[in-house]
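Note to self: keep these together.
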Amino acid sequence: MIYEMTVQIRVPDMEEGQRWYETLFNKKPHFIPHAGFAEWELIPGCWLQVAEGLPSNGCGPIRLGVIDLEGERERVMNELKVGDFKIFSRKEVPVKWATFTDPWGNKIGFFEYMEGQEKQAQINRILG
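Structure:
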């Protein structure tokens, strides 16, 4: 079950990039977990992440919220023959995540909330 999505883009200067996106969305970020990173919830369950760094060529990563990241990792590796699928986390970020590429080089990934209560609250919110 996919129940949430984030899309990340990169900007070379975070201060300038954040200011530009604040103007575009007419609001401050909903979440700034650490320096060089800000997030806006564009619609319920759909987030845009702006991260400091060199802009990527092409699309992605596009990350989708899942119930069981490890299970999805195994499924994707087995069914789609994806070989490079590492799971990451940071203490100050409430999710763990993984990114992989499709056969054409597009970056796709999944994420999972680390706290079960928060995960269930997000699912209930989307399902109504």
